[in-house]
């Protein structure tokens, strides 16, 4: 009986882990809720209170369009979409980005640059480390080409790039909507000067 090589066993384990985790993080809309006291929370259920200010977290803008993809790649991308969460000045983020490009994996990139972004990332993926890559419902943190390649293989992405030459990569977009700058208060106008009272005329018969 032939012994199973460590590499084959490792890939089989990755595939099994991937399959078991596909339903671990079901996709939900994510809402940012600002209460009357200014407290910010994130939830996957739209709140009913009219006193709360509600905004949907940015999870669709800049998403991959699969219409131009070859049939084989389109099927995989629709079943197991890939999202890359990055931040500025992050070498591992750039490594993951280049790996996905070279492998021909269409992906959506979300940038994490604020406390709100960090909170939303934690709510969406359960992670705060960057880069974080979601493949379907599977979440991978950090970047190691062999590990990421194993998950991409398990999802069924082609071994070589099948992206058409006309494919345009979506523009990276912030994970949450940037807060609007507070409106500047108008400058207070100085009160108008009170005119000095006119001098009363001197009584007649007096000379100065």
Describe this structure in a few short sentences.
29% of the residues lie in helices and 15% in strands.
How would you characterize this protein structure?
By secondary structure, the protein is of the alpha/beta class. The chain contains five helices and eight strands, in the order H-E-E-E-H-E-H-E-H-E-E-H-E. It has helices at 6-21, 71-79, 91-103, 115-125, 145-155; strands at 31-34, 40-43, 53-56, 82-86, 107-111, 132-135, 138-141, 173-174. The strands form two sheets. A five-stranded mixed sheet has the order 7-6-4-5-8, sandwiched between helices. Strands 2-1-3 form a three-stranded antiparallel sheet, covered by helices on one side. Helix 1 packs across helix 5. The protein is elongated, with a radius of gyration of 30 Å.
Descriptors for this entry?
208 residues; alpha/beta; 15% strand
Structural class: alpha/beta
Low-confidence stretches: 20-29, 53-61
**Residue share in β-strands:** 15-25%
Strand line-up of the largest beta sheet: 7-6-4-5-8
Q: How many helices?
A: 5
Count of β-strands:
8
| Separation, N- and C-terminal Cα atoms | 134 Å
What oligomerization state is this entry in? Answer: single chain
How big is the Rg?
A: 30 Å
Helical fraction: 25-40%
The helix/strand series, from N terminus to C terminus, equals HEEEHEHEHEEHE
Biggest sheet descriptor: 5 strands, mixed
Mean pLDDT: 76
Shape: elongated
């Amino acid at each position: 009986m032939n012994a199973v090589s460590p590499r084959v066993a490792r890939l089989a384990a990755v595939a099994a882990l991937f399959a078991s985790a596909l339903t671990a993080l079901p996709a939900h809309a994510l809402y940012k809720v600002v209460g009357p006291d200014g407290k910010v929370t994130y939830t996957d259920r739209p709140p009913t209170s009219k006193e709360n200010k509600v905004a949907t977290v940015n999870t669709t803008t800049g998403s991959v369009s699969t219409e131009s993809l070859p049939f084989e790649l389109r099927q995989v991308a629709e079943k197991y979409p890939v999202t890359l969460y990055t931040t500025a000045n992050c070498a591992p983020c750039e490594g993951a980005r280049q790996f996905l490009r070279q492998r021909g994996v269409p992906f959506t990139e979300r940038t994490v640059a604020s406390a709100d972004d960090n909170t939303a990332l934690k709510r969406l993926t359960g992670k705060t480390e960057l880069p974080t890559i979601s493949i379907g419902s599977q979440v991978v943190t950090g970047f190691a080409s062999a590990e990421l390649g194993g998950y991409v293989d398990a999802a069924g992405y082609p071994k070589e790039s099948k992206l058409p030459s006309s494919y345009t990569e979506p523009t990276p977009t912030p994970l949450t909507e940037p807060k609007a700058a507070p409106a500047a208060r108008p400058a207070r106008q100085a009160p108008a000067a009170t005119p000095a009272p006119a001098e009363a005329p001197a009584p007649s018969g007096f000379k100065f």
